[in-house]
Amino acid sequence: MVEWRNRLRKLELPAALLLLSALWSAHALRPLLLPDAWMPESAARLTAPLAALIFVGCAAVVSVRRRAGIISTGELAQWLLAGCGFFLLSALLTTVADTQRFALMALVPWLTAVLQPYWSGREHGTKDDLLPALLCLVGMLLLFPFALPRGAAEWRGALMGGIAIAGLTIAGLAVAGCFVAREQRGHPRALVLQRMPQQMAVATLPALWPLALPQSVHALAGLSAQQTAVLALWTLGVELPALALLWWLLARMRATQAALRFVLAPVLAALAARAMTGASANLAEWAGAAAVMAGAAWMLLAAPKTDTTTSLFT
Q1: Closest CA to 85 of 283, 314, 312
Q2: How many angstroms separate the CA atoms of 149 and 163, rounded?
Q3: Phi and psi for 121 in degrees, rounded to 5?
Q4: What does pTM read for this prediction?
Q5: pLDDT for 150-160, tens place per residue?
Q6: Do the domain assignments include residue 1?
Q7: Angle at which helices 98-120 and 151-186 cross, to 10°
Q8: Is 38 domain-assigned?
Q9: Are 84 and 170 in contact (CB under 8 A)?
Q10: Can you list the alpha helix ranges (DSSP code H) found in the chain?
């Protein structure tokens, strides 16, 4: 009985990451899932910021109830920078052409595996994660063929997008790994857990920026009662659980494992779209999907040779 419980506990984090990726994949499937009841894209893009607003409010309430201490300006800046890496990265990806976007997403786990020792201060299974991350990268290129930019404008856009995405990934994860690790070295774990709601709320703030745009106000004001109800249900049933799962996993997974959501979500979306539309996949696409799933399973389930008991934040 104890052995089965231990096996189930090992599957807890992979199952949660798979669920998070499935919720993320729902973004691409919205036209298929809600063909008649959905709303203009200008309003649909606001579901994630609205979920972040609810999340910030809940985290702030928990923080006040726990009577956490006043945070300094330096801590605020660090947590905001970490949030930029987590949330603005996804926003930047939407500005890149489709033929380059998935390749950039596939680079995130590999880039995280390569650079993880530089922000953790010691190796956290990085050598064990490089090969599965590379397998995921190859699989993504098979499933979503990469096309080189054409013309100076596309090259400039792809280059700037790649630099910005890499910079935000490195900066956000590096700051998240350093400042919480520093707190844990100097304070009891109970105090660190007491401060987590503050860290979560502040780092989620960058996800709220679309709500401050004038066009967002007009988009929300023009919705019908049915569209408003669908917007609320999608926010509470898809976006908010995904955000809560993301933060729950970040505190328990290595950075490379958490970054797998950038490859699992598009693969799940592609497979679900083909199943819903009846479209067939060719051999290269099936091989690509299998390679991504195999790389993710390898990274999540294989016993690491180095100490990986700490999370992304430590």
Answers
A1: 312
A2: 15
A3: 85, -5
A4: 0.79
A5: 767 666 766 66
A6: no
A7: 30
A8: no
A9: no
A10: 2-33, 41-44, 47-65, 73-83, 89-93, 98-120, 126-143, 151-186, 189-204, 214-221, 225-234, 240-250, 255-258, 261-277, 283-301
Amino acid at 245: L
Token pair in block for residue 256: 């490379």
Task: Check residue 69 and report its DSSP letter.
Answer: P
Q: Is the dihedral of CA 95, 240, 43, 199 positive or negative?
A: negative
**Residue 44: which pLDDT band, with cuts at 50, 70 and 90?**
confident
Query: Is the residue at 4 inside a domain?
Result: no
Torsion of CA 228, 231, 232, 235, to 10 degrees: -160
Residue 111: closest CA among 242, 258, 247, 250: 258
Q: Rounded distance, CA 236 to CA 23, Å?
A: 12
User: What is the Cα–Cα distance from 188 to 200, expressed in whole angstroms?
Assistant: 19
User: What is the DSSP code (8-state) at residue 96?
Assistant: S
Spatial distance between the Cα atoms of 55 and 59, rounded to a whole number of angstroms: 6
Tell me which residue range forms the domain holding 232.
Answer: 11-32+43-301
186 pLDDT tier (thresholds 50, 70, 90): low
Residue 281: helix, strand or coil by DSSP? coil
Q: Which residues of 128-155 are buried (b: 16+ CB within 10 A; e: fewer)?
A: bbbebbbbbbebbbbbbeeeebeeeebe
Number of domains in the chain: 1
Cα–Cα distance measured from residue 71 to residue 189, given in angstroms and rounded to the nearest whole number? 17
Q: Is residue 197 part of a domain?
A: yes
Structure token digits, residue 131: 């090969």
Q: How far apart are CA 47 and CA 159, in angstroms?
A: 29
Residue holding tokens 């809560």? 244
